[in-house]
C-alpha cells in the first residue's frame, strides 16, 4: 500500500504566495478588459465592478478613431523588419567577434556590453536630431534605429551561444570548400535557433510596445501613439481607451504565448555555453 507523501507546510505557504502573486500580475489585464466592455458612466462611477451590460461600441470607436488596420500594419512593419535586422546583423557580428581572437574583437565586444547600461534618455535627444538631419522621421526611417538600439543585447546573447558551437563543424565545411557566409548561414546559424527565438520574442515585445522612440521620431501612426487620441487634456474617453489597449495588445500576446517556451530555453542554453 502506497503512503501519501506529506507536503511541508512551508511549501504550501509558498504555493499560496505564488498564486496571490500571479493574480496580482494578471489583475491589471482583467481590469482593462472589464472596462473595455463597460459604458463610460459605469467606468467613472464603478471602475472595478463588472459591467451591467456589454458596451461593444468602445471597440468600434477605437477601431475607427485609431484607423486600426493601417496603424496595425505600420506597427507590424516596424516590428517585423526591426527584429529581422537585429537578428541578422547581431548574429553575424557576434559570430565574427567570437571567432576572432584579438584585442580589437575583445574591445568591440566590450563596447557592445557597455552599451547595455546606457539609458535611452541620455541618447534620446541626439537620436532625434540625427533622425531629422538624415530625413529618417518616418515609419521606414525608424527601423534602422531599432537595429542599433537592439544590437547590444542581441550581440551579448549571441556571443555566449556561438562560443559553444564546435569549431570542427566550420573546419569540416572549409575543407569541403564552403565560404564563410555559407558556413555561417547553412551550418552555424541553424544551431542558434533557441537563442534566436529568445531574442526575437524579447525584441518583438519591446518594439511593438515602444512609445518613446516613435513619439520623438514619427509622432503618429503606431498603435501606442494612436491610443493617445482618447487621452486629451480636457477629455478622457476611458472606454475606447481600454478597448484600444485590448486591440493593440492582442496580436503581441498571441505571439508571446505561442513562443514563450523558447525564452527560458534559449537563456538557459546560452548561460552554459562557452
Task: Provide a quick synopsis of the model.
The chain is mostly helical and 274 residues long. The protein has 14 helices and no strands.
Oligomer: single chain
How is the main sheet built?
none
- Count the strands? 0
Within the CATH hierarchy, at the fold level, what is the topology? MetI-like fold
Beta-strand fraction estimate: under 5%
Number of helices: 14
Helix share bin? over 70%
Low-confidence stretches: 270-274
Element string (H = helix, E = strand): HHHHHHHHHHHHHH
Q: Can you tell me the CATH architecture?
A: Orthogonal Bundle
Please tag this protein with its features.
single chain; 274 residues; mainly alpha; MetI-like fold; globular; disordered C terminus
Tell me what you see in this structure:
- The protein has helices spanning 9-36, 40-45, 57-65, 68-99, 103-115, 120-133, 143-162, 167-175, 180-191, 193-209, 212-217, 223-226, 238-259, 261-271.
- It has 274 residues and is mainly α.
- The chain has one domain (61-271): Orthogonal Bundle (MetI-like fold), CATH 1.10.3720.
- Helix 4 (68-99) packs parallel to helix 7, helix 5 (103-115) crosses helix 7 and helix 8 (167-175) runs antiparallel to helix 9.
- The protein is globular, with a radius of gyration of 24 Å.
- Mean pLDDT is 85; it is low at 270-274.
Amino acid at each position: 500500500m502506497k503512503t501519501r507523501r506529506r507536503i511541508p507546510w512551508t511549501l504550501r505557504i509558498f504555493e499560496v504566495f505564488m498564486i496571490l502573486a500571479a493574480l496580482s500580475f494578471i489583475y491589471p489585464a482583467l481590469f482593462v478588459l472589464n472596462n473595455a466592455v463597460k459604458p463610460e458612466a459605469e467606468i467613472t462611477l464603478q471602475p472595478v465592478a463588472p459591467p451591467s451590460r456589454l458596451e461593444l461600441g468602445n471597440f468600434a470607436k477605437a477601431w475607427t478613431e485609431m484607423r486600426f488596420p493601417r496603424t496595425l500594419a505600420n506597427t507590424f512593419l516596424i516590428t517585423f523588419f526591426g527584429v529581422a535586422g537585429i537578428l541578422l546583423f547581431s548574429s553575424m557580428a557576434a559570430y565574427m567577434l567570437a571567432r576572432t581572437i584579438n584585442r580589437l574583437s575583445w574591445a568591440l565586444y566590450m563596447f557592445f556590453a557597455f552599451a547595455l547600461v546606457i539609458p535611452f534618455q541620455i541618447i534620446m535627444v541626439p537620436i532625434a536630431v540625427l533622425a531629422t538631419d538624415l530625413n529618417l522621421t518616418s515609419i521606414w526611417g525608424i527601423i534602422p534605429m531599432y537595429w542599433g538600439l537592439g544590437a547590444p543585447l542581441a550581440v551579448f546573447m549571441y556571443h555566449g551561444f556561438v562560443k559553444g558551437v564546435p569549431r570542427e563543424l566550420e573546419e569540416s565545411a572549409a575543407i569541403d570548400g564552403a565560404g564563410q557566409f555559407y558556413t555561417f548561414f547553412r551550418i552555424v546559424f541553424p544551431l542558434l535557433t533557441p537563442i534566436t527565438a529568445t531574442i526575437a520574442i524579447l525584441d518583438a515585445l519591446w518594439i511593438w510596445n515602444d512609445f518613446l522612440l516613435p513619439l520623438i521620431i514619427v509622432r503618429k501612426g503606431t498603435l501606442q501613439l494612436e491610443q493617445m487620441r482618447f487621452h486629451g487634456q480636457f477629455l478622457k474617453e476611458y472606454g475606447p481607451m481600454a478597448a484600444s489597449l485590448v486591440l493593440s495588445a492582442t496580436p503581441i500576446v498571441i505571439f508571446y504565448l505561442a513562443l514563450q517556451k523558447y525564452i527560458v530555453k534559449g537563456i538557459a542554453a546560452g548561460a552554459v555555453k562557452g
